[in-house]
């Protein structure tokens, strides 16, 4: 999985007053959990733009003044309720031999024939919870939909890998092609018109015979 570098400084003083001062200076207070003890640090708000404001998922390489480096993932983000600015981030430290769970985006490839023929693509699960050691975490999970016809579904079971575990039931639907409601209505209307036409022809026939 790709990593974004975050450069920051350790926070020697924690508390509301110190935290407010950091935010006023354009910095985001952060805490790194998962190690022997929590690490409090801060970094410029701009440092997080590629890590937070993206549909992709990345690990973070945290580099602090003094030479300390940590590999981590975002555990929680707090935004200001009015401005939507980042006001706090919790990180969780990664270790090469310790598995972690992360929501990984699902990427669809190709065009489904069922959609071209009038079906509707339903994509209810755009992210899947995956568990793996950091080195095996995928950037995204690919699904080839180029053979999906109307009624076809892709289940979690078909996405299983030896490198990671998907933490969802095997029979959960990730993507499918459903019959369009409009197509059903059109079929029903055509069927009704056909029945009416047959009845009309049946009623006209005896009249024609009587006239003869």
Automatic annotation (TrEMBL):
<comment type="subunit">
    <text>Part of the 50S ribosomal subunit; part of the 5S rRNA/L5/L18/L25 subcomplex. Contacts the 5S rRNA. Binds to the 5S rRNA independently of L5 and L18.</text>
</comment>
<dbReference type="InterPro" id="IPR029751">
    <property type="entry name" value="Ribosomal_L25_dom"/>
</dbReference>
<dbReference type="InterPro" id="IPR020930">
    <property type="entry name" value="Ribosomal_uL5_bac-type"/>
</dbReference>
<comment type="similarity">
    <text>Belongs to the bacterial ribosomal protein bL25 family. CTC subfamily.</text>
</comment>
<keyword id="KW-0699">rRNA-binding</keyword>
<dbReference type="GO" id="GO:0005840">
    <property type="term" value="C:ribosome"/>
</dbReference>
<dbReference type="Pfam" id="PF01386">
    <property type="entry name" value="Ribosomal_L25p"/>
</dbReference>
<comment type="function">
    <text>This is one of the proteins that binds to the 5S RNA in the ribosome where it forms part of the central protuberance.</text>
</comment>
<dbReference type="InterPro" id="IPR037121">
    <property type="entry name" value="Ribosomal_bL25_C"/>
</dbReference>
<dbReference type="InterPro" id="IPR011035">
    <property type="entry name" value="Ribosomal_bL25/Gln-tRNA_synth"/>
</dbReference>
<keyword id="KW-0687">Ribonucleoprotein</keyword>
<dbReference type="InterPro" id="IPR020057">
    <property type="entry name" value="Ribosomal_bL25_b-dom"/>
</dbReference>
<keyword id="KW-0694">RNA-binding</keyword>
<protein>
    <recommendedName>
        <fullName>Large ribosomal subunit protein bL25</fullName>
    </recommendedName>
</protein>
<feature type="region of interest" description="Disordered">
    <location>
        <begin position="188"/>
        <end position="212"/>
    </location>
</feature>
<dbReference type="Pfam" id="PF14693">
    <property type="entry name" value="Ribosomal_TL5_C"/>
</dbReference>
<feature type="domain" description="Large ribosomal subunit protein bL25 beta">
    <location>
        <begin position="100"/>
        <end position="180"/>
    </location>
</feature>
<dbReference type="InterPro" id="IPR001021">
    <property type="entry name" value="Ribosomal_bL25_long"/>
</dbReference>
<dbReference type="InterPro" id="IPR020056">
    <property type="entry name" value="Rbsml_bL25/Gln-tRNA_synth_N"/>
</dbReference>
<keyword id="KW-0689">Ribosomal protein</keyword>
<feature type="domain" description="Large ribosomal subunit protein bL25 L25">
    <location>
        <begin position="6"/>
        <end position="91"/>
    </location>
</feature>
